[in-house]
Specification:
alpha+beta; Alpha-D-Glucose-1,6-Bisphosphate, Chain A, domain 4; 7-stranded antiparallel sheet; 28% helix; globular
Length: 155
């Protein structure tokens, strides 16, 4: 049986370079990712930390950084006790330019059976990516209340 995997595709009217910056620079991520800072130097092998409200929520390691085409990193949730016990997963962003738009494909894989993390990211990624698209196309991220996501402990 194949591993459970999350995949999401969206089309954003922007350039690959602007999208790359929005995925990797905290000045952008704080606007659409529930005030989360992504801290890394984005070099292969470097650490990654997702910091929300001063607390590190997730950690990882940069696996691939091919600006502005492909970004991959490991992902390990560190706050929730149950999710801390789950295996390290992998997030991959693929950016493909098509004229005035960029096709963004996000995959998140490597979950164990019955993964609580898979349930959470399956609700969180669509909201995060909706905010990203809105920010790049209009200059303002759509505000999605955390309660709308239905994620336990995230309100």
């Amino acid at each position: 049986m194949p591993k459970p995997e999350f995949a999401y595709v969206t089309y954003i009217e922007t350039t690959p370079d602007k999208l790359w910056d929005a995925l990797t620079k905290s000045a952008f991520t704080r606007q659409y990712w529930f005030d989360t800072e992504l801290q890394s130097d984005w070099k292969v092998g470097s650490p990654l930390a997702l910091v929300m409200g001063g607390k590190t929520t997730d950690t990882g390691e940069i696996l691939e950084a091919d600006r502005p085409r492909r970004l991959a990193y490991t992902f390990k949730h560190v706050l929730d006790e149950d999710m801390r016990k789950e295996p390290v997963t992998k997030v991959v962003f693929t950016l493909e330019a098509h004229g005035k738009i960029v096709k963004l494909t996000v995959t998140h894989e490597g979950f164990g059976a019955g993964s609580k993390l898979l349930d959470g990211i399956s609700k969180g990624w669509p909201a995060i990516l909706s905010g990203l698209k809105s920010l790049l196309e209009t200059g303002k991220a759509v505000t999605i209340p955390p309660a709308a996501l239905g994620i336990d402990g995230f309100e």
